[in-house]
UniProtKB/TrEMBL annotation:
Keyword Signal listed: yes
Gene3D superfamilies named among the record's database cross-references: alpha/beta hydrolase (3.40.50.1820)
Entry keyword Transmembrane: no
InterPro entries reported in the protein's UniProt record: AB_hydrolase_fold, CarbesteraseB, Type-B_Carboxylest/Lipase
Species lineage: Bacteria, Pseudomonadati, Pseudomonadota, Betaproteobacteria, Burkholderiales
Entry keywords, A to Z: Signal
Name this protein carries in UniProt: Carboxylesterase family protein
Gene source species: Ramlibacter agri
Sequence ranges assigned to domain Carboxylesterase type B in this UniProt record: 37-509
Signal peptide residues on this chain, from the entry's feature table: 1-19
Length: 538
């Protein structure tokens, strides 16, 4: 009875607080825009307006420091008074950022970093005090499981919030702090590793408990994701632990590498974690926890989601084959020039022959028939295609086919082709023009998120770019609203029902088109089936 009374009083307090979003004369006042969330009361950021209200740096879990390092997210500690949500939190401690041109294209910002990083940010166009039940979108960013932050300019939520979504970005632990498994950690909790995924689940649980106060609908939550973030989201798609916490999913340029390989098992990850500790001179868990976060992240480690028996109970393809996945509408695809920021497959004919023989062995001749080359010039012309096709195209193509064949919910496939002609800025030279990179990995995000005006670095986008961004972001918000990207005057996007279906080209042309690179995709079906040692799950 006492618990019921206490919950009722909290609800009443939250209702009274959320009615304080405007001053006596009716003008919006961020300082009076107060909400009750898990942990206490928050005031909107000073930058908020009546049109877009912003809340930054809201804790969704306790700081994972000290004895809480390498533990599942713990409950938020309550605070007294009003927490002013004016500033982003520090990002989680990152690994080393890529050097050179790929770094300039993919990861521009250098944020304040801390192990105390489990915070999220909310943008909403819902009126203060209103219960509007808008669709909710939560981002899982990319960064190779080593980098990233929910506060990067390209992820700013205003672009999608202006189209009707309540947008949430969050931080998750990366590198060894986010994925280390170790026998002592397993003994402590029954499983280990996948802390980044637990962070994502904790943020989704926070959304379920709190998002209605921001005008969001907890029954219409979309996880949208890119690259390694899409790799994490793909695990959530197959995880019973995430069941019911989201209702649609977007996978952009699914970037798990190596593609087609089984996920690391807990035993394998524990062995790697033990070796990691030994290399640091930390042979026990207590010694590992005594190391600084910077020491941990500076050491060599290959982070990846693992089959831990908790968040992920089996290999993803086997869970799909058994129809043990979260059957929600799925929108996914890839870009025309995904691999251009990365190393070339080869640059000479001799290097091409050696790489093909080493990588594809008995299937090298088939590979060479798909990517024919008779000269150094031919090799340079196809140098970035194998990585594009084998990683960033084949994975969405395969998940789309499995989802369409085994699920009941709709599947939607896209192909992003815009090659912007922005001017050469400090990140480019005449010898290294932006046209070299084309529709590169991660480019689609500022279009889909309606953030051209906030891209980092700023670039000289044209009216064509703005028209593409308007259409792409409208498709995304429509999908978050209904599970179907179609609506209004947008060109009709056909559902993907199987290999014979079309994909939706989004670029200078916005229209259905044949799925590209089919000979290459068919080759990688054969190669990865051989690598897995079992049929693909459809």
């Amino acid at each position: 009875m006492k618990k019921t009374i206490w919950v009722g009083l909290l609800a009443l307090a939250a209702g009274l607080a959320s009615c304080g979003g405007s001053s006596g004369d009716g003008a919006y006042s961020a300082s009076q825009d107060l909400l009750q969330v898990t942990g206490g009361q928050v005031a909107a950021a000073a930058e908020s307006t009546a049109a877009i209200r912003v809340f930054k740096g809201l804790p969704f879990a306790a700081p994972p420091v000290g004895a809480l390092r390498w533990k599942a997210p713990q409950p938020v500690a309550a605070w007294t008074g009003v927490r002013h949500a004016d500033s982003f939190s520090a990002s989680c401690v990152n690994g080393n950022r890529p050097a050179g041109k790929p770094g300039a294209i993919l990861y521009q910002a250098t944020e304040t970093q801390s192990e105390d990083c489990l915070y999220l940010n909310v943008w909403t166009g819902a009126a203060a005090g209103a219960q509007e039940k808008r669709p909710v979108m939560m981002l899982l960013y990319g960064g190779g499981y080593q980098l990233g932050s929910g506060s990067l300019p390209n992820y700013d939520g205003r672009g999608l919030a202006s189209k009707g979504a309540v947008v949430v970005t969050m931080n998750y632990r990366v590198g060894a702090l986010g994925f280390l498994a170790h026998p002592e950690l397993t003994a402590e909790a029954g499983h280990s590793g996948n802390y980044a995924l637990m962070d994502a689940i904790a943020a989704l649980q926070w959304i379920q408990a709190n998002i209605a106060s921001f005008g969001g609908d907890p029954k219409r939550v979309t996880v949208y994701s890119e690259s390694a973030g899409a790799g994490m989201a793909n695990v959530l798609l197959a995880s019973a632990k995430a069941g019911g916490l989201f209702h649609r999913m977007v996978l952009e340029s699914l970037g798990t590498m190596p593609a087609g390989a089984p996920n690391t098992t807990l035993a394998q990850a524990e062995t790697a974690g033990t070796a990691f500790g030994n290399a640091l001179g930390a042979t026990t868990l207590s010694a590992l926890r005594a190391k600084s976060a910077q020491e941990i992240m500076a050491a060599t480690f290959a982070p990846t989601p693992i089959v831990d028996g908790d968040v992920l109970t089996d290999q993803i393809d086997l869970l799909f084959a058994r129809k043990q996945f979260n059957d929600v509408p799925l929108l996914l695809g890839w870009n025309a020039d995904e691999a251009t920021p990365y190393p070339a497959f080869a640059t000479t004919l001799a290097g091409y022959d050696a790489a093909a023989n080493t990588k594809y062995g008995s299937m090298a001749a088939q590979f060479k028939s798909v990517y024919p080359a008779a000269s150094d010039a031919d090799v340079l012309a196809m140098a970035y295609a194998p990585m594009r096709d084998s990683v960033f195209a084949w994975q969405p193509w395969t998940i789309a086919r499995a989802h369409a064949a085994l699920g009941k919910s709709a599947t939607w496939l896209y192909f992003f082709t815009r090659r912007p002609a922005y001017f050469a800025d400090q990140h480019f030279t005449e010898q290294d023009p932006p046209s070299k990179y084309g529709a590169h990995h991660s480019l689609e995000q500022v279009y889909f998120y309606n953030n051209l005006a906030r891209s980092a670095p700023m670039r000289n986008y044209t009216d064509v770019d703005r028209q593409i961004a308007d259409a792409a972001s409208s498709y995304l918000v429509n999908f978050a609203s209904t599970g179907n990207p179609n609506g209004g005057s947008l060109p009709a996007w056909p559902a993907f029902t199987g290999p014979a279906s079309q994909t939706m080209e989004i670029g200078d042309t916005i229209a259905p088109t044949a799925v590209p690179f089919r000979p290459a995709l068919d080759f990688f079906d054969q190669f990865y089936t051989q690598q897995l040692g079992r049929p693909l799950p459809f």
